[in-house]
Design brief:
Layout: H1 24-28, H2 32-39, E1 51-52, E2 67-72, E3 87-92, E4 96-97, E5 106-108, E6 111-114, H3 120-134, H4 146-150, H5 154-165, H6 179-193, H7 205-212, H8 219-240, H9 265-275, E7 288-291, E8 294-297, H10 306-322, E9 353-356, E10 361-364, E11 380-381, H11 387-400, H12 421-430, H13 442-452, H14 457-464, H15 468-475, H16 480-490, H17 494-523
Helix pairs in contact: 5-6, 5-8, 6-8, 9-10, 10-13
InterPro entries: DNA_brk_join_enz, Integrase-like_cat_sf
Organism: Bradyrhizobium ottawaense
Protein name: Integrase
Length: 537
């Protein structure tokens, strides 16, 4: 039976994330200090819980206790609808308040709560767990048995990770980095597909189960979800207090190189010209229109789309040279974060900016967030070949007083946070290039440039703030299709057969020489016998 056809069914109730799912035997096995730390009511064991046993005069509660457990015997002559078994109640005499971190309000007002337990010890434990949960107490997983950790729902762990690691900043400012949104989408998709998955069921078969789920996401996106869930699950278990030695790892198959069409030098040049407004045919030739003195190349009018094209005219080489991971560049600025640019109020966490110095130009990216831990969070230096062009931008904007790198033609900032994707699609269309290209493919162009220049992948990975493995797996080899065509043209049996013929010819020559030596030995006259001279002679 295929792995994806196996449905794991839970045989027991999943563990509550607060850690108070325990049996009477586990509660009896606790040390007094651990028992008091777990329930926080000044109790050393279950025997210290105030209770009224059957037969006590008028079933009076112990004096001075804010709550107690009361035994309720069944009626002596029960009717058809009367209770026929003993029961237990939790009687709250004084209001029980919640912990300060849980609000500090009244958690349980004075009232009577019917318990489900059928014995005295079970009733005491149920009453303590009820009060602890109402007060907002939680129990760290370091005190849990291994079975309780394995019975945790993966969805509960991921929800806590989202609440503590992916929530918006306290002041409500949205970070420039969109990684939080990507992580949230992957976690939500996984929880919708496998809402009943437990931590103990996480193994290598999880990959096949998730890929077989009817989730409206591509296989590449599903593999990305699994990478996100694997990292988030490890961090989320740590938030519960699970020791880091607990193994919750599953192998994810390498998705390999993504099928991408490599950029050619002609396409890159046409893309930059199209950002200036020039229009090309799909075959790469300029699109001509009638002019006053003959056909001239078509150029877009100076309309509302020009403002976006002006910014993309700078962004296209910027992305290719710096190999930035931003799919669409944020509205970068020339001034540091401590300075408020004119014309727009920025959040205090907005970071992307260019620093121009005498010895180099640096692009300070974002990434100072918890879930972006695989980045080095360093500045990216502009390559020497691209530096004169960036300095020309800086001097032109400095003369105009424009504090934005990617701005409209009049120097005013954009209303959004990133460059318009629709404008880039129009530029690709005007350049006569396949419309499936996206801005992030310009990073593949940077990989191609580095390969052609003889740069090793580790050097490029340090420049792009990533790893060499990620460059090869996620972005792929930009020249893969070209290398396939080259291999198809050059693959031939000729050199192999020539080498075999040379080896056979050498063998034949040696055999012929050996035959001649043998024939000469048979026909030649015997040599005369010569007596060996002695030492005396």
């Amino acid at each position: 039976m295929p792995v994806q056809d196996v449905l794991v069914l839970r045989t027991a109730k999943s563990t509550n994330p607060d850690g108070y799912d325990m049996t009477v035997e586990q509660a009896r096995a606790m040390q007094p200090a651990e028992f008091e730390r777990t329930f926080g009511l000044g109790l050393k064991s279950l025997d210290d819980v105030p209770a009224v046993q059957p037969g006590v005069l008028l079933e009076r509660a112990p004096k001075g206790c804010p709550y107690y457990v009361r035994h309720c015997a069944p009626p002596k002559n029960p009717g058809p609808k009367d209770r026929k078994e003993p029961a237990f109640d939790l009687v709250v005499k004084a209001p029980q308040r919640a912990l300060p971190e849980a609000g500090g309000g009244i958690a349980v007002p004075p009232r009577i709560i019917r318990l489900k337990a059928k014995d005295a010890d079970g009733a005491r434990l149920e009453a303590l767990v009820f009060l602890a949960r109402k007060q907002g107490r939680t129990r760290r997983a370091t005190d849990w048995p291994i079975g309780a950790i394995q019975a945790l729902l993966v969805a509960d762990v991921l929800r806590r990770y989202k609440a503590e690691c992916l929530s918006a900043p306290p002041d409500g400012v949205e970070e420039a980095n969109s990684t939080r949104r990507t992580y949230t989408q992957s976690i939500d998709a996984f929880c919708r597909a496998l809402p009943e998955l437990e931590v103990g069921d996480v193994n290598d078969a999880l990959v096949a189960r998730y890929l077989a789920c009817p989730v409206r996401r591509s296989e590449t996106s599903k593999l990305t979800d699994l990478y996100t869930v694997r990292r988030s699950l490890k961090v989320g278990l740590g938030l519960f207090g699970v020791p880091p030695t607990y193994n919750c790892h599953f192998r994810i198959p390498d998705k390999g190189m993504l099928p991408k069409t490599p950029w050619t030098p002609d396409e890159y040049d046409r893309l930059r010209k199209a950002a200036d407004g020039w229009v090309f045919n799909p075959d790469g030739t300029p699109k001509m229109i009638p002019g006053p003195q003959g056909p001239v190349q078509m150029r877009r009018a100076d309309d509302w789309t020009w403002s976006g094209r002006e910014a993309w005219r700078r962004a296209i080489p910027f992305k290719a040279y710096l190999a930035t991971r931003h799919g669409r560049l944020p509205i970068t600025r020339w001034v540091p974060p401590e300075v408020e640019p004119k014309g727009r109020k920025l959040p205090k966490h907005d970071r992307p900016w260019m620093e121009v110095t005498d010895h180099g130009i640096y692009y300070h990216r974002d990434g100072e967030v918890h879930h972006d831990g695989n980045k080095r969070r360093g500045a990216n230096k502009v390559p020497v070949e691209f530096e004169p062009e960036v300095r020309a931008w800086y001097e032109a904007d400095l003369e105009r007083g424009c504090e934005w790198v990617f701005h409209k033609r009049d120097g005013s900032p954009y209303t959004g946070r990133k460059l318009c994707r629709e404008t880039f699609d129009n530029i690709v269309k005007d350049a006569g290039i396949d419309p499936d290209r996206i801005p992030h493919h310009l990073k593949d162009l940077a990989v191609e440039w580095s390969d052609e220049a003889g740069m090793d992948r580790d050097t490029l990975a340090a420049h792009a703030d990533t790893t060499a493995r990620t460059l090869g797996r996620t972005y792929g080899d930009p020249r893969r299709e070209a290398l396939k065509e080259k291999a198809a043209r050059q693959m031939s049996q000729g050199p192999w057969r020539e080498r075999g013929e040379r080896k056979a010819n050498v063998t034949r020559l040696f055999k012929e020489a050996a035959g001649r030596r043998a024939a000469n030995a048979e026909t030649a006259a015997p040599l005369p016998f010569r007596r060996r001279r002695s030492a005396d002679s």
